What does this fold into?
Amino acid sequence: MNYYRHMISESHSEWSHPLLEHGNLLSIGWSDFATTDFITRHQAVDWNGVYDEIKAYGEACGWNPRSTGQSAGSLQRFLQMKKDDKVIVPVPDMGTFHVYEVKSDDCLVPEDLGNLDLPPSALKNRRSDEAVVSGGKLHNRGTGDVIDLGFFREVNLVMSDISRTDYADAPLSRRLMRPQQTTLDVTDLSESIENAIIRCGNKQVINLRSQVMKRCAGDVLDIIEKYIEHTKFEKLICDYLHRLGASVETPSKKNRPGIEGDADVIATFEALRVIIYVQAKRHKIDSKTDDWAKQQIESYTRTQGEMVGDDGYTRIPWVISSAEKFTKECEEGAKSKNIRLINGPEFAEMLLDAGIETL
It folds into this structure.
């Protein structure tokens, strides 16, 4: 049995999440290659051929060699999963992860979905747009746009919403926090994963780590309050995202025709084709960050294009505040616009998880 960590949230998340939650289907992109012939051809010879074929295709298209290699490796690992393998799916916004078990050796392509007894909710996004199969690919019925999800694995849920802080040991927690590749082989952490499942089922919190994290996070937040002014706070966010593998920039505030709102930090994860726009708010710990932060990042993200653009990049807006709380208006508005709000205590724990020695 092998163990994998799979990030579904970065590839057409508005479709991949319902497929998993309601249809028990893990998904990955590469719809241009999604044919039964592609699977059987490589399965019969050597799965390493997947990597070679995708890498060669990327080179011919002039793609970034490093990003293409990582993506090709992820697809190969996704295809070679076998029955009873376990797959860990992190939910970064919630600080949790789910564990699934692969149902069969068969990998599916869009044309196979019609043979499954999927509930309608599995093929609808949050706006109730419906996905349909046409010409061997998934399409948005309303717009006709191709949904770049090409391969699927049937899975069964083993355990949901396992708290990373409460139940994952340090090696597993660190691996869950590294999003450089969509699919990783984490078989070396099999014992950590099985122990996390058992602890969660028995509600046996790893008390030492949990308490140390909470206590240290409070100290980190106090240091930010006393010594880190706004510019340094933005720099701290830049350093954190860079440590996670992003290329980071701070956009100019001047001469921005057609740009509304504001972002203090832009972090691009090339391997995942994800761009995170961050509005940083250096506020007092005992204050509340109001709706203005949400409005700024919402407007800025909107001027950059669609949430999932034609260039294949998914754009995600964040607000990181050093305050402990957000106003109710800000929380409700952020939820309706899919904006992630990160308060001071959570950001302090994120810094500790990433390793604070180089920040």
